[in-house]
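User: For my dataset I need records formatted as: sequence, then structure tokens, nothing else. Please produce one.
Assistant:
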Amino acid sequence: MLAIDPAAHLARVRETSPLVHNITNHVAMNSMANVLLAIGASPAMVHAREEAAEFTALAGALTINIGTLSPHWVDAMEASALAAGETGRPWVLDPVAVGATRYRRETGARLLALSPDVIRGNASEIIALAGQAGGGRGVDSTDPAEAALDAARRLARQTDGVVAVTGEVDLVTDGRRVARLRGGHPLMPRVTTLGCALTGVVAAFLAGADDPFEATVAALACYAVAGELAGELANGPGSFAVAFLDALFHLEGEALTERARLEVDDAP
């Protein structure tokens, strides 16, 4: 078993306030920006193919979310991913509904070939991205996270990166180590784009991190604890969304230490 301290990673994010460049979908922009601000990072949404790659070099990390694709955005995504590789900026791929259409499968494969540092998706998305037949209903997963573990390991080894499978129990692997995280709240899937916003939080934790696996686990742990805290106050999805932002903003080391429920296996 390995020890990971989410509080230390959160403190680093708040001290450095990394600029996170997000090429994300139309639906997610506002909530993603608010979540990143609440956690202590600095969000930017730059999508034009004429400037996206140049902006990536100015940022601490990049996220690419394929939720609302268009040809110009795909061009910007590929150029930005290439720029991230050339400048040493970590980047996170969010393969939203990647198995739903041929265009999404092709775009996912092209981005996967550019070796994202982290892939974050639900189980059905991870299974589809790995080229396996899986479930999925639009952006929703019909597979449990554990069902995607083998696919996640293969993707992690293929990209020499990290794969995070989010669900009732989150899984994170770098192809060797596997972390399982419990927490969150049943209302989280009832608030649109909270998963997309988590991709931005992962990127913020990656910026300047020594170990992408540990940084990803820490980001997911913070999100899960904030979800639990928000759920104690919320009466429904609307109040949960507000309480969740407040919980992220007020999240501190002691609460993380007491509430984070994660197990990490260091196994072949």
